[in-house]
Amino acid sequence: MTLKFTRYLYNQDEVKLTLIENLLNQKNLKECYFWIYEYFQSNSVEDTYNLIYKIYYDFYGLKNPKFEKKINKYYKLFTKDNDIKYILVIIKNLFKFEKDSTIFLLRTYYSRNLLSLLKSKNVILDNFKFSNQNQQKLVNSISQKNKEGIAYYLKKLINDNNLIELLSKILKNKIIINDNYNKYSQLLFIIISSFKIQSKKKVFYLKIQNKEIENVLLSNYKSYNENTIMIKDENYITEWLKKAPIGFDKIFPNPKKQIEFVMKQKYKDIEEALGNLWKDKDKVKGKEYDALIFFGSILDDILLKIETPYKIFQNKRLYSISDNIGCFNLQRNEYNLNDIFWYHWEYFAYKSPIWKKRFDKYNINVNDEKQTIEFKNEDELEEFYENYGFDPDEQKLDVQEKSIKKIKNKKLSDWLNSIFKKKIKKNIRIKVNY
pTM (2 decimals)? Predict the structure, then answer.
């Protein structure tokens, strides 16, 4: 497994799993929005919808079968106008839905080994010739509603050319597969859901509000060369000028315009201007000295309010990954996570599309042996870190711990029992890839 960092340097696999746990626990919808948007920003549209389909079939499909058509509809709409609302509205509804772990367990656990015996009597299908014994056993499992047998034999037959024809015969229904997601999970869902009588009652789904979308988009990254100043007070300049020393407007004519001009400049240019100003302060006296010190205080305050990459990293990492996901195969287990987060984050971030696009604007070399990104031009290196220098090794511990905290091993059965009311009696210790 290859470890990838997302836009704010979370481990991509842990973003997925933390999203799932938050959806299932139904405690904080805003956090679910954060995690799906973190994943979406760091992956392709296809990857994002693939994850959504996977979560839906694993945990929600059996209890909410009609929503599948809605997901298909939102996917088509998204491909037309790339509006994030079509992803968020799915998450909002999943968050409220009744959940079920049947498909998840069948797909990840019972499909591995045959754990239950079938009755010996074979089912005969008219006008269909079985290609092998496993096809007969799958049909027998479906006839007997033996879910474990279905999961096991379906996986063995997934590449059979006549599998869809076989299932259409036994289920007496046309089988339609969505190309956007894994064939096995869909067929497993179709078979198991066929055992239930579908309600004809009309279902009403939740809608997404514009304010919810706006709040999610606030997490977007802007490099500080775009001068993202965190000044929300419209009277910011007026309040400063109320404190101005006598004669300030004569030494700095039209001070309001001068301050507005400064606020539009790049961080490094304001920093350089402030440095020059402090050098000149000892050359002047009296009112000129007071005015210079006062103007320098304004520049210093503006610098504090500009979101540097370092500050952005602190402010945008809103949530911590779950420490309850140790029942899954985590990519971190194959690496020294602290070391790569501190000293090789660029290399592992480059594996995500969002970071690859950022790096590929420059003349770089990807050094796989040293796990580094090497810039061939010093000016380009400086520009990149001016825009994206998160300095994870220098961040406060609580900021770092949001992605590198320790995660203890956990049994899959314990994880499921902590979330679902229907308890699993089996002691399931396998590590699941998700």
Answer: 0.85
